[in-house]
Every structure is written in C-alpha cells, then in structure tokens.
Amino acid sequence: MPTMKAAPQEPPDMKNIDYRIDVVVESIMLCLDISEVKDKFLTMVVKGLGPLVGISGGRLWELRGSEYECVQEVGRAKGAIGKRLPVSYAPIKIIIEEGFVSYSSDASIASKDLENQIIGGSYTAGVAIGHNAELIGGFTLEFQAKWQEDTLKRMLRRIARGTAMALYNAERYQRLVKSLESVEREIYVARKMQEVLLPEPPSFAGFDIHARLISSEKVGGDYYNFFPLRDSGLAAIIADVAGKGLPAAMLMNQLHGALGVKVHDETKISALVRDLNDFLCETTGPERFITMFYCELLPNGLMTYCNAGHDRPLLLRGGVFCELAEGGMALGFFKNQLYEQAAAKLFPGDVLVLYTDGLTEAYKSGSGEFGIEALQDIILLNSSLSARDITRKIFEAVDVHQGGPSETPGEVDDKTIVVIKAIEPHSYAGGKEER
C-alpha cells in the first residue's frame, strides 16, 4: 500500500482555491458535449486542484443497475476501468445518502480487499454527481489534515453541482440538435434553450411578481430568472445577450449556469457581478457581451441591486419615477472592472419594472419607437393593478403602437418584462399563473 505523504501543517490560501474552483466550474459549464464534461470534471479536479489539496488521482463511476462501474480514470488512479463496486458498499451508501464521503483505507467502513484492488491509496474522497448519484467521482489522496476534509467537501460538492448542470445542458442540447436540420434546427434549438431557462414567476412574501418574454422570429438573447437565497431573500435578474440565434442562446446558457453557481455564494452583489464579468471576458470575445440588471429582495422590502449596462429599470413611487442606474459597464468587455451596488426600500404600492430594449424600441413606420415615456405612461395608469395585469397592459400598448400582436412574424428583437410590485404580505397568495 502506498505510503501516505506528510500533510502540510497549514492549509493553502483559501482565496486562491475559491478562485480556482470558479475557473473549474465555469470551464465545465462551457461544454456542450457529454464526454467532454466528464473528462473535464476529472482532469481539472486532479490536475488543476489536486496539487493544492493532495489529490493524486481520480475515477468516474457510473451507476449500472445495482453496481457502479469505473468508466474513466486520471492520474495515479489506474487499472480500475471496467471494475465494479456494489451499491451496498458502505462508502458508496454514504455518498448516495449524504453526497460526500472521505475516509482512510483502514477505516471501519472500508473493505481492505476492495480498497487494495479497486480504490487504491491511503485516503479516499468521493462525491455524488446529480440528485440521484448517477455518477460518482472518487479521488485518491496523498495526505490527511484537519483542514483537508472541509476544503474537499466544499470544493467537490460545488464542482459536482456545476458538472451535473453541465451534463443536463449537454444532454438537452444534443437531443435538440438531432431533431432538426440546418438553419431551422439552429433557430429551434436556440428557442428551446431560451424557453427551458425561464421560470414561472415565484411566490414571495411581500411582493407580487410577474414576468413575460416574447421571442422574436430570429430568437434573441433575452433572459430573466429568479433564485431563492439562503437568507430568505430572492434574487431577480433580467439580461440581454448581444446577437441572435444559437450563439446568443449558448451565451445566455453560460450566464444561467454561472448565476446558478454564484448566487448561492455568500458575497456582495458588486463582487458577484464583477466575477461574472471576468468569467465572460475569459470565455467570449468582446462582440459577445451581456447587459444585466441584478437585484436581491428581502421580505421587509429592502432591495440591493447592480446595473451592468442594462436599460434602467423604472421604480414608480407616489406618481414619480426613479431610474435604477448604479452599477457599471456591460459584462464581457474588459476584465477587472469595478461595479457599484445600491439599495432601495420598496413600500406597499411601489412598482418596479425591469425590461429589455426590444420593448421600448418596438418600431412602426411613421410612428417611430414605442419609447420610454409611453412605457412610463402605461405603468402610471395601471399601477393599482396586479403585476400580471400591469405586464399585460404594457404588451397591449406595444401591440397597439405596432399595429399588431408582438408575436407577429418578422419581429426583430425579443421583448421582456419583469414586474415586481410591493404589497402587504397578506394581500397576495401567490401561486402559479399563466404567462
């Protein structure tokens, strides 16, 4: 059995590890090929992060009936391809139930025979990938230290979560690509990618929320989403990706994946937006940029936000509009940009409207663009209505301006609205609504 190396007395720089974890997750999220996702998961953990935390080899185990079969290995973990571990094996059971396990080869849960023949190494860590643990990442470690288990648990769980999302996206993408041909296939795939990312408006205490997106014929890159936060808050996002078709949809998918990982980190909004910007700068060219408005709401009405080059949302209070501008430039142009965040308190009756430029720039020959003033007029006139009805009234006004429904063939840009109305907590029951 290999001799376990002496563990470093002090843990490595945690900020450096967190940064590298972000790089690994974001790189995995860029893949739309299932095999590439799996390969990157193992390779980047073992070769990219391994030297920092003592990982010398890794294996990927895939569920096959009542056993897990080794389908891939990297580093010093060699010779197990095709071999199997039963689901009943104690460490496997812990991974399935708790998502993570770490143990030494002489621990009571370990079988020395299996450890020597299949696992190898003096110390092992494993992590489940996916809610049902369809895949397991197993890693051979060179040393054991008090700080190591917590670091490994946090690191591997976070990377596994990003890998599961990447596998889901890759499987969905490949299914869609096979269904159609040439340009029609591209437009169909882009539209489907856009549709599946958009959630139902959430039920959130103290607020009435509704959202609607109408896709153009060519499919743009409009995006909105909501994420529950650990502090009982809610993150609301609206974004507009430059370009159209499949390239815009893929960039929107990257943004969605990065947000899904980062919004759960305990960090300031300005830092979150800065990290998103750096990620996009590293993975795209300047011709592929994103404008985004990001805000976090608390049930007491407090809102913190950052505007990254997006059309300024309109906050109506007492018949007066305020535009929410604090933030910085659009995402994806230059790295190391500074972003500001600001706060506002929303009181019952206040109406916040997030929108994309496809709405205000809706055009009709002889009439020009719909414009921001017309949007303000409709919001003011209908501010006493529900968020859903305010949304409906806005789109009806745009339809009148254009002389036809927004879904009319020939539309050149998506139109998106998110309406957030502050209310007394007891006055709206929430629930699923039709868009």
Radius of gyration: 25 Å
How would you write the strand order of the largest sheet?
3-2-1-6-5-4
**CATH homologous superfamily of the largest domain?**
PPM-type phosphatase domain
Overall geometry: elongated
Strand content: 25-35%
Tally of strands: 19
Question: What is the fold named in CATH at topology level of the largest domain?
Answer: Phosphatase 2c, domain 1
Could you tell me how far the N terminus lies from the C terminus, measured between alpha carbons in angstroms? 61 Å
Q: Helix- and strand-based class?
A: alpha+beta
- The overall number of domains is 2
Please, what is the average pLDDT? 83
Separate helix tally? 11
H and E order: HHEEEHEHEEHHEEEHHEEEEEEEHEEHHE
Sheet with the most strands? 6 strands, antiparallel
Poorly predicted runs: 426-435
User: What level of helicity do the residues show?
Assistant: 25-40%
The appropriate CATH architecture of the largest domain is 4-Layer Sandwich
CATH class of the largest domain: Alpha Beta
Structure commentary:
The longest helix has 34 residues, at 146-179. α1 (14-29) packs antiparallel against α2 (34-53), α6 (182-197) packs parallel to α7 (245-262) and α7 runs antiparallel to α8. A hairpin with a 3-residue loop joins β17 and β18. This protein folds into two domains: 14-170, GAF domain (Beta-Lactamase); 199-427, Phosphatase 2c, domain 1, CATH 3.60.40.10. It is 38% helix and 26% strand. It is elongated and about 80 Å long. The protein has eleven helices and 19 strands. The protein is of the alpha+beta class and 435 residues long.
